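[Automated response] Your request has been received and processed.

Submitted sequence:
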Amino acid sequence: MHKRNMFKMAAAAAVLTLTAGTAFAQEIKIGFNGDISASPSAQSGQAGVLGLQAAIDDLNAAGGLLGRRLSLVVRDDLSQPPRSIQNMSDLIDNERVSMIIGPTNSGNALAWRHIPNQKRIPVIGFSGSATDITKPMAAGADNYMFRVSMVDRPQVAALMAYVKRNPASKVVGFMFETTGYGQGGLRDMQEIAAMHGIQPAATERFAVNDTDMTSQLNKLKAAGVDTLVVWAQGAPLGHLLRSMEKINYFPRLLTSWAADNKSFYDAAGPQLAERAIFLRTVTDERSARQQQLFDRVSPRLASTSSFPFAAHAYDGMMLYAAAVRQAGTIDGPKVREALESLQGRYDGIMKAYERPFSRTEREGLLASDFRWTHWKDGRLVNYGDDVVRSLRQEDFRM
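Generated structure:
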C-alpha cells in the first residue's frame, strides 16, 4: 500500500470517537491542527500525527489519564492561515479538546495563537519554529503556548556565532523568503548580527514558490559575498542551490533547519544538498530511545528525514500527560500552571526533561539540544569543522 494512503487511513482512524454515551463522557480528546497534505512541510505534519498517536497509544495501554481513555482528533489546515484559524475554533468549541498539538507552519500559529490564550487551552508546538509563537499576548499575561521543537532565534544565534568565528567569512549576505516564516527569520538575523557587529553587504528576498534566484545571486556575487545566511522552507532552499549552480557561484551556505526536509533534498539533488550547513534536533545518528520510536513509526513516514517531528510530538504529549497527573485535572488553567512547574523528571525521546517550562520559559528544547547537521550520501549526519569545534556557550548571543 502506498505510504500516503497508509497515512490517510491512520489519520482517518485517529478522528473516530466512541459513540456510546458513557464511553464518550469518559474520553479525553487531544487535538492536532497542522498541514498534513498541502505544503512542502506536510511531511512534518504527517510525522507529528504519527508521533502523537504513538504517545496516546502508550498512555492508553497504561490506563489512560486520570482513569480516562484518550482519543486524537486531527484537522488538516492545508497550510492556510484562515483554515488553521477555523480548525482551532472547531477543535476547542465543537470537539472540546483538552489540548492541541500544532501547527506545522509558523505563520499559522502566529495567526491564531490568541485563540487558545482566550479559551485557556494549552497548545504544545512541535514544528513551527518562529520565535514569536510562544511569546505572551501581553506583558505578564497568562500564556497557553508551549513548544517542543526547534526555535528560530537560537538557530540564528548559532549561525551568527559561526560567521563571527569563521576567519573565512569576510563578506556576509542575507536571503529570505517573503512568508511570515522568512520575515521572522530575517528579523532575528538582523538583530543578532548587530550584536556581533556583523553588517551584511546585501540582503535579497524571494517568494516561496520561486524556482530561479539567479538575479538575486548575481547581486550578492557582485557584492563579494562569500558567506550566505538564508531563511526559507525546504523546496525554495533547494531551488536556490540549483540557481547557484547555474551561475557557478557557491558561497558558504548556512540555512534554517528546513534544509533537513526531503523537499529540499529532492529540489537540490544529492550533490548540491551537501553544501548546506544547518541545525536540527535529531540526525540519523539516533539515540537508543529515538531508534525505538523510529522503528515504530518509520514504515508510515513519507520520508525518514521527517522523524524529528514525530519525536517532538511524542514528547509534547507526554509532558502534557505529566502536567495532567500533577494537576489532577484537565482544566486548562490548572494544567498550564502544572506545565510551568513540572515536578520530577521525564526521560523523553529528545532528552531528559526536568522543569522544561516556567512562567516565562516556553521552550522545551534549547540551543544546547540542537545538532549541527548536513546531508552526506543521502543521510542527515552530524556536521563538524574547526569553527564548530571552537564555539563556546558565550558565543551564542540572543
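Summary generated for your ticket: The chain is about 45% helix and 15% strand. The first strand starts at residue 28 and ends at 34.
If you did not submit this request, please reply to this message.
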